[in-house]
Write a structure and sequence with these properties.
The complex is a heterodimer of chains A (about 600) and B (about 400). Chain A is of the alpha+beta class and about 600 residues long. Chain A contains 7 helices and 38 strands. Chain A folds into 5 domains: about 30 residues; about 130 residues, no CATH class; about 90 residues, Jelly Rolls; about 130 residues, Jelly Rolls (Sandwich), CATH 2.60.120; about 130 residues, Jelly Rolls. Helices cover about 15% and strands about 45% of the residues of chain A. In chain A, strands 6, 8, 9, 11, 15, 16, 18, 21, 25 and 26 form a 10-stranded antiparallel beta sheet that branches. In chain A, strands 4, 7, 10, 12, 13, 36 and 37 form a 7-stranded antiparallel beta sheet that branches. In chain A, strands 5-17-24-19-20 form a 5-stranded antiparallel beta sheet, with no helix packed on it. In chain A, a hairpin with a 2-residue loop joins strand 22 and strand 23. Chain A is elongated. Chain A starts with a helix and ends with a strand. The longest helix of chain B is centred in the first third of the chain and has 78 residues. Chain B folds into 3 domains: about 150 residues, no CATH class; about 110 residues, no CATH class; about 100 residues, Phosphohistidine domain (Glucose Oxidase, domain 1), CATH 3.50.30.10. Chain B is an alpha+beta fold and about 400 residues long. Classes of the chains: A alpha+beta (about 600), B alpha+beta (about 400).
Chain lengths: ~600, ~400
């Protein structure tokens, strides 16, 4: 009995020991069944994702849902090599979640075990779920794909557009630089002063409007303005006069502006800096712009008649850095009696105390231009002609009588080679006039400064147009931030000087500003002052800078759109926005071209299969 | 009794020890198995991730390559300035989305560098560290119409604890078609006023001599109809057709046709343009097609390829023409992968482009700075169509120059 009892004791002990060990062991692990199921679920999720990733539409073309989309044209023969992920992704990106769900369900429902719940998600959106139970455990497998985003076409159309024909606004400026009769040639000694200038407006110009900024000195006499021999205005002036006159009779083709300053009662008739004819019109613009490297240019002088003497300054410029091959002056005058001088800048290139009465001269003036070596410095050159008066004296020479004329058969002929000729295509030209009054306000001053910001289009050329009622000599500078403002050293601006009058009264109505003086990133400044003269030689706030520039007449490829029409409309809209303000609405003909099948790297997007 | 008890106890102990051992080791075994499964899952996911990155690289290479070709063309056309080294610029666009150092809007978020960063961040979210090394990018022409892109990468992927790691060098290659892109040659040489989309002709544009005879009179162009003498009379619209028959003199109303081609030499009673002695013409001539009967060469010519190339404005592979890269570079010299098209002078004229009189209309010859004389080609309707002798030889119409 004892043995049996001991055996029972041992057995009981062992049972207790086993129970202890079981409790001990169970404290170390989660039931193995859970791990196994998770692993199983993960494998199912991975396999499902792999099926979607690897299976091509061709492989499942018998599937009824796939056939449905083949029949309605959503799936074309070109799509047969695309994967199911690609198809589902495309539907999803096109916001066609229902179609994405149909395809996913149709493929996976046949393959997934009946007992499990699963879901397919793209970019966090539910594509398809089979929800049989609450997810107490969840396994997932994911795939990253580029090229899909909701609301964005996976492949689409891009378009660019350009103007094929365009009628655009053009601004034509005709600066008239100072000219006049001999000083002292008032009522009893003198006669009328007449200036005629011929200019051309394109033959297809329409909606022409023009205005003359009249800047003259006429002491008690009438100023008559003619356009093509039609009187535009007669203005009585008692002294200096600056104002605007509407000009109505500018027409397509050749035009002649004539200004007659009646014989004055006192002093002497002459024009002042700031006289500019501004003509605006619309015409069919060129859609390309190409300068020649080598330029031959003949600039005709105005026809000027003074009594008893006549003088005129005429500015001309050569782009900075151009190699000057030749510069010639052909001069023809009439009615000269006693005296004749021709200056180029501060060089006396011809003088005679007994000139022929109808002089004809051909002068080589190249050596007198603003040159550095053989290339132009860019500073405006001044041609000054005095007939029957001395340049250094304020009146006509003794013996002058009748009228003296500078004929418009006179011309300056230039031949130069540009360092970098501008060659743009798909652009149209435009002009902007920027007034001086932005910085200094409306006050006239001996020194005036203006600024402007320029961020948009390439500048072709730019000119400063100084307006003065009284003037002597002007020096001007142009700079941009962060260049420092130049200082006046008594004779010059110490840097960035773009013009300086060579002699008294040599203040032209336009001064060339080299393009490189302006920046498209920072603020630009222009400053001008009258010097060596009276303190009443003020620069008026009506002074302005004209900028000729190029506006793009085309836009490049833009966004990707799901169809050709949308891409074209976008391109045309972008083009209209670009040219708005420079061309007239309703007269634009555009062309577009498209590129198809442009892919885009939308995303990345995560495609997930979850199993629980 | 005690011995029996000890015996029973010993037996009970012996029976219980294996159970104790099993119970002791079971948790360890399960732990190890669980650990292996977890390891397998992590490694499986890491491997899947790395493969996924490689597969997506194929996709992004296609996207960025196609866009780079569009972007480079766009820039050349919009700026009106050819580029210096097309493959290098295309590489720059694919890699970092810049065109000559400036960000190119078409390539923003569509370049490899951007994708590298995106996929690295995505990897971190999933639980993997990813490092991608750009080991090189090659851009070459693989034929007349395809640009080949090949990218070499090293992908290092690890889990966040750096326990599992995969490092793999790989190269990915694809060909991207230039078809559908604009040819910069046209806008560059017409101030941007004329465009041309590149499509390779899906036919052979070269002329073919379909029949060659011994005697010919008059030249004419019309639709061919093959018939024997008895059938010929039943053919409608004879005046627009060139009859191909055995013996022209046997056809009763032969002179009602536009022209006739006959296998025999008999010309009795024929007043219309004819070609006779064309042995085998009834089998060699394709019926129902437009053909040109040329008396000077005593031949019937198929010029439809040239006509189609003109009207469809497609490109023909030619070792005498510049390839796509050269066209981007404004270079009109020849290339093994060259292509060429015919310039439509009517199109140029309607866009106010000044024409070059008597210049060959093959694009690289027409836009050449040199004067390359072009001869009229008999049988081609467009009076302005001219080819140089070399080009005419290429298109099989050397004998038709006039």
């Amino acid at each position: 009995m004892k043995g049996v009892a001991i055996s029972f004791d041992v057995l009981f002990s062992c049972v207790f020991l086993l129970m202890f060990l079981s409790i001990y062991a169970s404290s170390f692990y989660v039931p193995p069944r859970f791990e196994g199921e998770y692993y199983h679920s993960y494998k199912v999720a991975s396999d499902a994702l792999m099926i979607l990733k690897k299976t091509r539409i061709y492989d499942v073309q018998e599937d009824p849902t796939i056939q449905f989309y083949m029949n309605n044209g959503d799936i074309t023969p070109d799509d047969m090599n695309r994967t199911l992920v690609d198809l589902i992704g495309t539907f999803w990106s096109e916001n066609r979640t229902e179609d994405a769900r149909n395809v996913t369900r149709s493929i996976l429902e046949q393959l997934m075990p009946n007992s499990i719940s699963y879901g397919v998600y793209m970019g966090g959106d539910v594509i398809h779920e089979r929800n049989l139970s609450f997810p107490s455990r969840l396994a997932k497998s994911s795939l990253m794909v580029s090229g899909y985003m909701v609301g964005k076409p996976t492949r689409g159309f891009m378009a660019r557009a350009w103007l094929q024909r365009v009628r655009g606004n053009e601004t034509f400026l005709l600066p008239i630089s100072p000219a006049g009769s001999g000083f002292g040639a008032f009522y009893f000694q003198g006669g009328d002063f007449t200036l005629e200038k011929t200019f051309e407006i394109p033959s297809d110009a329409e909606n022409i409007s023009s205005q003359l900024d009249l800047s003259v000195h006429e002491e008690r006499g009438y100023i008559h303005i003619y356009m093509n021999d039609i009187l535009q205005a007669s203005i009585y002036s008692t002294s200096t006069y600056y104002g605007t006159v509407n000009i109505n009779d500018v027409r397509p083709g050749m035009n002649v502006l004539k200004i007659v300053l009646e014989r004055p009662l006192f002093y002497h008739s002459h024009t002042h800096p700031g006289m500019v004819l501004k003509v605006t019109y619309s015409h069919e613009k060129n859609l390309s712009y190409a300068e020649e490297r080598e330029v031959f240019e003949r600039q005709e002088l105005p026809h000027v008649i003074g009594s008893p003497a006549v003088w005129m300054i005429y500015p001309f410029d050569i782009p900075k850095g151009s190699q000057v091959n030749s510069a010639k002056l052909h001069f023809e005058g009439a009615g000269v009696n006693r005296w004749m001088e021709i200056w180029v800048n501060d060089h006396l290139v011809y003088s005679s105390s007994s000139p022929p009465s109808d002089p004809v001269l051909n002068l080589d003036i190249k050596d007198y231009l603003h040159l550095s070596g053989n290339s132009s410095t860019g500073e405006t050159n001044i041609l000054a002609i005095y007939l029957d008066m001395e340049s250094t004296r304020d009146r006509y020479v003794t013996g002058a009588r009748g009228t003296a004329e500078i004929l418009n058969s006179s011309y300056v002929e230039l031949n130069y080679t540009k360092p970098e000729p501008v060659r743009y295509y798909g652009r149209i030209t435009a002009t902007r006039l920027i007034p001086f009054d932005q910085l200094d306000g409306q006050d006239a001053a001996l020194i005036k400064k203006m600024y402007f910001d320029w961020t948009d289009f390439p500048i072709l050329s730019s000119y400063l147009h100084i307006v003065q009622k009284y003037s002597w000599k002007v020096a001007a500078a142009a700079w941009h931030d962060p260049e420092g403002e130049p200082n006046w050293n008594g004779t010059d601006w110490d840097k960035y000087q773009i013009f300086k009058s060579p002699t008294g009264r040599s203040v032209p109505s336009s001064m060339y500003i080299p393009v490189e003086r302006f920046s498209t990133d920072t603020r630009n400044y222009v400053k001008a002052r009258d010097f060596d003269g009276s303190s009443s030689n003020l620069v008026l706030p009506d002074s302005f800078v004209s900028v000729n520039f190029l506006v793009p007449a085309q836009v490049g490829y833009g966004d990707v759109f799901p169809n050709r029409t949308a891409a074209e409309q976008d391109a045309i809209q972008r083009l209209n926005e670009t040219v708005r303000g420079y061309v007239e609405g309703g007269e634009i003909e555009t062309q577009t071209t498209e590129i198809v099948n442009v892919p885009t790297m939308w995303g990345l997007t995560e495609m997930e299969v979850r199993v629980w | 009794m005690v011995r029996k008890g000890i015996l029973f106890s010993s037996m009970a102990l012996l029976a219980i020890i294996p159970i104790i051992l099993i119970l002791h080791h079971y948790p360890i075994l399960v732990r190890e198995k669980r650990s292996l499964e977890v390891e397998e899952m992590i490694f499986d996911q890491l491997n899947f991730f790395e493969k996924n990155v490689e597969e997506d690289l194929d996709r992004i290479l296609f996207i960025s390559a196609r866009r780079a070709l569009i972007a480079v063309t766009n820039n050349v056309i919009i700026n009106g300035t050819p580029i210096d080294d097309a493959p290098s610029i295309i590489k720059e666009l694919v890699r970092n989305g810049a065109f000559q150092g400036e960000t190119e809007p078409l390539m923003e978020e569509n370049n490899i560098e951007y994708w590298y960063e995106e996929i690295r961040e995505m990897g971190e979210l999933i639980g993997f560290n990813l490092t991608l090394y750009d080991m090189g990018l090659e851009v070459n022409l693989s034929n007349n119409s395809m640009v080949n892109f090949e990218i070499f990468t090293r992908i290092n992927a690890t889990d966040l604890l750096n326990v599992h790691a995969i490092s793999r060098d790989s190269s990915h290659e694809l060909n991207v078609s230039i078809e559908g892109l604009e040819d910069p040659t046209y806008p560059l040489n017409t101030y941007g006023l004329v465009k041309r989309i590149i499509y390779i002709c899906d036919f052979d544009p070269r002329a073919r001599r379909e029949a060659n005879g011994t005697l010919s009179s008059g030249s004419v162009k019309g639709i061919t109809v093959v018939a024997n003498a008895s059938e010929a009379d039943l053919i409608p619209d004879k005046s627009s057709k060139i009859l191909v028959t055995h013996n022209a003199s046997e056809v009763s109303n032969v002179n009602q046709f536009l022209g006739v081609v006959a296998e025999t030499n008999d010309t009795f009673g024929i007043t219309i343009p004819y070609l006779v002695g064309a042995v085998g013409a009834m089998t060699s001539v394709t019926p129902g097609e437009e053909r040109y009967l040329d008396s000077a060469t005593k031949s019937l010519w198929d010029l439809t390829g040239i006509e189609r190339m003109l009207t469809e404005k497609c490109y023909f592979p030619s070792r005498d023409g510049p390839d796509f890269f050269q066209r981007l570079e404004g270079n009109l010299f020849s290339s093994p992968y060259g292509i060429e098209s015919f310039v439509d002078l009517v199109e140029l004229s309607s866009n106010d482009v000044t024409l070059k009189p008597n210049q060959s209309v093959v694009d690289h010859e027409y836009f050449s700075e040199e004067s390359i004389y072009g001869y009229r080609v008999r049988g081609v309707d467009e009076s302005w169509f001219r080819l140089s002798v070399e080009s005419a030889r290429r298109y099989g119409v050397e004998e038709l120059l006039e």
